[in-house]
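Appendix B. One record, verbatim.
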Amino acid sequence: MLGVNKGEVILVTHSENWKRLFDKEKSLLETIIGEQVKDIQQFGSTAIKGIEAKPIIDILVGVESLKDVEKFNNERLKEAGYYHLSRVQIDGKEVFAKFTDLENLTKTHILHVVEYQGDWWNEHIAFRDYLNANPLVSKEYESLKKNLAEKYPNDEHSYTNEKKQFVDEILNKM
């Protein structure tokens, strides 16, 4: 199963299939926006070995400058199910999401477009790599996520905010 409705927090058992789904999506994105892209990486919990995750593939898209987003072929992205989430205002990041159901706003993939090798890029990659290299820490993260998912089953915003504290602590140690 891939996809979560807007606002919901659902965790599922890690799937080896997530890497294959990312690779497929990466190939698709390279044909649509490849000219503006420096690199595309899978990150987030679906990229961390063996831990439960929301069944959404997080994709980090590195561009030379965020102005390159203006050159993206939005029509082709929409044909592929991706929509620019212009109301999501995060400094240094543009966000697109792939929806399989626009009525329930069921997201299956999220594109986080950031400056390649800038702060956002480096932090996301470093966190993913650190958790993959430290299974005890990744299990601690998984435990936190399970508790938060139970506490906030319909409040994705609170779930994400509380989870961020753990991420920041790890990044500060590095």
